[in-house]
Design brief:
With 114 residues, the protein is mainly β. The protein has 2 domains: 35 residues, no CATH class; 64 residues, SH3 type barrels (Roll), CATH 2.30.30.40. It has no helices and 11 strands. A 4-stranded antiparallel sheet has the order 1-2-4-3, with no helix packed on it. The chain is elongated and about 60 Å long.
């Protein structure tokens, strides 16, 4: 009853007779099939995810931006646990964390997941 056409269109027989075209249709040797439009896929925005990490460096700077030359907001010590929030735009080599009542950035070289 149903077959696949190229370009992600599907064809479905709809009360048509061989050799007759039914509206926006294709003709096959067996049946005339109406082409159904491709299914629209719902775009889902990726939500931020969170994880807990432990600091493995003796001291780790928390920075305002994911850059080594960014302003230092504070420091963390070995064994401190941090709550990482994945940003909408990833910054490779950095983790965005909750730091007090705001967010900061730490190098991901000096943390390990719990």
């Amino acid at each position: 009853m149903a077959s696949l056409l190229s370009m992600s269109f599907s064809a479905q027989a709809i009360n048509c007779k061989v050799g007759k075209v039914c509206g926006n249709a294709c003709i096959s040797s067996h049946k005339v099939c109406k082409i159904t439009p491709p299914v629209k896929q719902k775009v889902v925005k990726k939500k931020a995810t969170a994880s807990t990490f432990v600091i493995v460096a003796n001291t780790l700077n928390v920075r305002a931006l994911p850059r080594a030359d960014s302003k230092v907001l504070g420091k963390l010590k070995r064994g401190n646990r941090v709550f990482s929030v994945t940003p909408e735009v990833p910054a490779h080599g950095w983790k965005k964390i909750k730091f007090g009542n705001r967010h900061g950035w730490i190098s991901d070289r000096y943390v390990k997941p719990l």
